[in-house]
Amino acid sequence: MGNYTLIERLISKIDLCTSIEDLEQCRIDLLGKNGLVTRLFGELKTLPPSECKEVAQKLNTLKAEAVQKIASRATKLEEIAINAFVDQDWCDITLPGKPRGLGLIHPISKTRAEISDILATFGFTQATGPEIEDDWHNFTALNMPEGHPARQMMDTFYIKGNAKLLRTHTSTVQIRAMEGNKPPFRFFSFGRVYRKDLDATHTPMFHQIEAVMVDKEVSLANLKFLLHEIVRRFFGNSTRIRLRPSFFPFTSPSLELDIQQGSSWLEIGGAGIIHPKVLANVEGSWRGLALGMGIERLAMIKYGIKDIRQCFESDLRWLRHYGCSAY
Amino acid sequence: MLITLNWLKEVIDTNASAKEIADELLKLGIEVEIESREDLKPFVVAQIVSAKPHPSISKLTLCQVIAGGKEILQIVCGARNAKEGLKTILAPIGATIPSNGIVIEPRTLGGELSDGMLCSAAELLLDLPQQEGIIEMPLDAKPGEPLLSYFELDDVLFHLEITPNRGDCLSVYGIARELAAAGLGRLRQLPEKQVEQQHEIKKSPDFCPLFSLWSIEKIQSGAKTPEQILKRLEKAGIKPVNAPVDILNYVAHTFGQPMHAYDMHTCSGEISVEKRSGFELEALDGCSYKIAGEAISIVCNDNVIALAGIIGSNSTKVKNNTKDIIVEAGIFDSKCIGRTGQELKLNTQARHRFERGVDPALCLAAARIAVNMILEVCGGILVQTDVRSSIYVGSISEGDFHQLIQSRLTSTIKLHLTNVREILGQHVEEEKVVSILENLGFSICKSGDCLHVRTPTWRTYMELEEDVVSEIARSIGYDSLASCSIAQNRVVSHSLEDKARTICASLGYAEIISWSFVGSEQLLSFSQEQSIQIENPISQEMSFMRQSLIPQMADIVQKNNSRGAKGGSIFEIGPAFFQQEEVQTLAILKSGQTLETSVHTKTQQADIFDIKGDVNRILSILGQEKIIYRRQALPGCHPHKCASIISGNQCIGYLGVLMPTSIRQKQPEICFAEIYLSKLSLMQQELKRELKVSNYQQVQRDFAFFVDQKCELGPVLDAIKECNPEIIRDVILFDVFQGPEVPQGKKSFAVSCMMQSQTGTMSETEILSIHGHIISKVAEKFGAQPRLS
Predict the structure, then answer these.
(1) Which of B297-306, B446-455, B594-603 is the least confident region?
(2) Nearest CA of chain B to the CA of A272: how many Å?
(3) What is the mean pLDDT of residues B57-79?
(4) Are B502 and A108 an interchain contact pair (Cβ–Cβ within 8 Å)?
(5) pTM (two decimals)
(6) Which residue from B239, B236, B262 is spatially nearest to B171, judged by alpha carbons?
């Protein structure tokens, strides 16, 4: 029975080990090929069966205790070692992080994405058309025949050598999307438009977004709702809006849309019920609404941009300030 | 258009304030800005009754001043022109100086009290010829008279924006008519007929439904235009000419009827209206115009003496010493005038009005008022017997003249109340419709299920039911109209372009937007095709449609670098313009440091492989597989560092490094890629097959070779993979170098091959066999020598 005491003494040494090596020696002394426990298990077969069972039980208990203690000591020693390692692994956490390239989206693109997302909730999908257009799509089909004074409202760029021009508005896409297609329609067009103008509020190239809905029953009341929704969702619930009668050759009735900023009202777009002469581009009896907005104008109001020309100067300091994250 | 409040009040009886008028006009569809000098209200005319030097401070003058009241004010003044007897402008106690916002208070200067301030034109922000010293007022100014009333600055100026469909609002009277209809006052009666002439009524052509000539003889030469008319014309932005012309302009602005005057002696003979083409006219603006298309012309003795409704000739104009004149007032076809005006690119007040429509019913009344005013101001007599005094009307009729105009120049539109409801989305009672329209001058006649709406003579561009509904809508007010929701029906619309934008931003590129047009030095065409040119560019730098986005982006990066940026990564998504098509293009460009300077990593300069890596990433996310880069010389680029990007046998873009512009200054390379988004095929992405993970061991073997310096390694890597595509999973090039140990004209490269079998652990023999195969193939195909380590 002295052997048991010896085992217990060896077991009690486990917790005193201060290194992985000491602990390994302990394990060898107890559980190794020639370890004490291993040896005593070997001697079991020399014992009479009556004692054998009892001794075996005792040995198993002791072995289990030893295994568990070694494991827990090993964990403990690992923990001590890790702590010692990280303790000396000092770091100046105030150093700057590693640089990552800063990618940004232009406020014009951001604004387009926001408006088209609002339009998407009402089922409007994107339609496209060329920027170098013909007179028919830009003027005549939009109820601005030659000699119509409204043509003077837009100072147009012409292409040398042919009768084409740079589109002055995205309304050209209305005609392109209608040609050869059947209503009902809900589409929007977005893109670059061109007018000969350059000052703090005008650039010769700017962006418009225009939404068109053609159906059996479409009214000014629907248009009012849509305009309110766009403004509410884009500028915020509390934004006040004002609708003023106006005139566009391709809508009747026509109106202009202002929003309140501080004490003044700023014009952000035009809209109306599509003129029957424009709807003559589709067969059958339909009614439609159209609304258009200047993207730069929306972005300038929402993001506090003072001079429209800055949008196209591409000063990286400006882009970092006004640019938006990709996500 | 510019009009003033007092001018407006000549034709409308109203108590409304300028603000109320402006608000109402805005509701009616006319954009307004008010310009007023309310800030000058406290300032008055003052006279210096005595002036002596300040006892203690030199350069200052002690002035005793009267300003209407009984008391004499003492004012200390620093202006050199302060002297006894001078009439000037006083800022009394409490007034705010417009130029600097200072409020005048009593104060003591060198022991002398000063009870106000004498002002200069600059301090009052007045645009007077005399800017130095205190204002020297004319002798007729009375002490105590408000500055505002003396200069008629109390008259508020309205800047009005009239839409092209509202020619009727291009006059003071037209605006008054709108206000009266909106309940903001009552239109005054037109002056009684004061002159009449014995007209010979003749038939005129269709493009000129009404034409009248009035001969006035023996007017006083050098007669002065009344001061009030001059001031109003100046405010309206109309240049003074001479008394008869100023009066015609004044009446035109008041009533909207453009009129013209000829020197009677330069047009002796009958005057007629014809359409002519192919002639030249020396106009009174000093320019010469060539008229190719048909223009309505006023002709005398076979000479064109005016382009009707646009401009008169120089030789027949009324000069300061002209004694006998002919006044013309007519109505001309708006489309003809518009076409001629557009052809000549000539925009005169008359054209502006005629193009938008002039009220025929007011034509003769305005002419009578103008002729009468000329007789009053310039003297002279209206000649009753001159052959040229005549009125031409479209068709000779026994009936009432006005009725004739009504029937010929107005239209009738059928209005169904159901359509009113459908367009507005709300029901409007018939009574209300009728009252709104009658109030605006329409006449209504009910017939069956619809209303026959006759437009008033002054309204043009009214053709359809919708146009009448517009009138109803604006009268009710858009803010009061119903709103009705439309069903939500969400669609997802993320285009390829949106995706590309997100990828580029996440790769660290900042989005820019640049002009679609460039100058000739910024033209770059990879396809070497001719550029599209703008006929009428805004400047030479914006005269060609770009075929590549790169030159502008290179400029942008260089500009930013000159502002201190050390490197830039930018991208743009926009159109490139080719003869046959517009291609939506994604361009990325990198130059200089790839990342900011950092303690952690060495700074690196961007090179073509940064771009190539990003292009690979972008195209793979956009679903483009099997991309090939084909060496191709590109204009404006480094001869070796450029390639076309090929996908499915189609060129979908280019990448490269721009040609350096200087060899002495070491410039960072400008690396770019341009990808034609509209040429990407959207269906290319193949369906994924089932993933089979091999559980057998992966083996890595490294190889090193010497090859010719100019041997392209891309094909070598492909060839190695080809040796056994089943087993060789990956080939990684990890080293390329030239140095002392490398033979002349050669380079060394090293690759790792990852090998793994799907069917079992590879034996040493198998590995050796593949090993041998790789070495012999590379040696045979590329002349490479294995490098023994």
Answers:
(1) B594-603
(2) 10
(3) 90
(4) no
(5) 0.82
(6) B236
Nearest to B158 by CA among B312, B23, B334: B23
Contact assessment for residue B569 and residue B614, using Cβ atoms and an 8 Å cutoff: no
Quote ipTM for the complex.
0.85
Contact A152 B347 (CB under 8 A): yes
Which amino acid type is present at position B727?
A: I
Minimal CA–CA distance to B22: which of A265, A298, A257? A265
CA distances from B341 to A169, B309, B338 (A): 23, 10, 5
What count of other Cβ atoms lies within 10 Å of the Cβ of residue B583? Answer: 16
Closest CA to B382 of B621, B198, B641, B138: B198
Which H or E run contains B8?
helix B5-11
pLDDT tens-digit map of B224-272: 999 889 989 999 999 999 999 999 999 999 999 999 999 999 988 888 8
d(CA B590, CA B557): 8
CB contact under 8 A, A152 and B422: no
Structure tokens at B610: 């940064």
Cα–Cα distance, B328 to A90 (Å, whole number): 98
Q: Which residues contact B468 (CB under 8 A, 6 or more apart)?
A: B413, B415, B437, B442, B453, B462
Instruction: Give mean pLDDT, residues B140-152.
Output: 86
Which positions in chain A touch B535 (Cβ < 8 Å)? 157-160
Task: Match 């073997």 to its residue by tokens.
Answer: B701
Residue of B466, B491, B600 with shortest CB distance to A275: B466
Task: Name the token pair of A6.
Answer: 């010896």
The answer to whether A160 contacts chain B (CB < 8 Å) is yes
Token pair 């997100």 is found at B502
- Given a contact cutoff of 8 angstroms between Cβ atoms, the answer to whether B474 and A253 are in contact is yes
**Mean pLDDT in residue range B698-723:** 93
pLDDT bucket at B351, cuts 50 / 70 / 90 = very high
Average pLDDT over residues B605-611: 94
Position B434 pLDDT exceeds 90: yes
SS3 per residue for B421-487: HHHHCCCCCHHHHHHHHHHCCCEEEEECCEEEEECCCCCCCCCCHHHHHHHHHHHHCHHHCCCCCCC
Residue carrying the six token digits 């002209």 = B322
Rounded to the nearest angstrom, the minimum Cα separation between B764 and chain A is: 36
CA–CA distance, B620 with A109 (Å, rounded to integer)? 23
Distance, in Å, from the CA atom of B746 to the CA atom of B736, rounded to the nearest integer, reads 11
**Averaged pLDDT for residues A210-225:** 96
- CA B123 to chain A, closest CA, distance in angstroms equals 28
pLDDT at B663 over 70: yes
CA angle B750, B754, B760 (to 5 degrees): 150
Q: Give the C-alpha separation, B778 to B770, whole Å.
A: 12
| Whole-angstrom distance, CA of residue B669 vs CA of residue B590 | 8
B716: which 2 tokens? 């070598």
A208 touches chain B (CB under 8 A): no
Do β-strands B637-647 and B650-658 pair in parallel, antiparallel, or remain unpaired?
antiparallel
Residue B532 to residue A159, Cβ atoms within 8 A: yes
Q: What does each C-alpha distance from B316 to B115, B263, B281, B282, B313 come to in angstroms?
A: 59, 5, 11, 10, 6
pLDDT for the residue numbered A145: 86
The 10 Å CB-count burial string (b at 16+, else e) for B276-303 is beeeebebbeeeebebeebbbbbbbeeb
Q: Is the CB of residue B424 less than 8 Å away from at least one CB of chain A?
A: yes
Residue in A103, A131, A243 closest to B478 by CB:
A243
The residue among B366, B382, B283, B279 whose CA lies nearest residue B330 is: B366
Residue B399's pLDDT is what?
Answer: 44
Looking at the predicted structure, is the pLDDT value of residue A212 above 70?
A: yes
Q: How far apart are CA B502 and CA B481, in angstroms?
A: 42
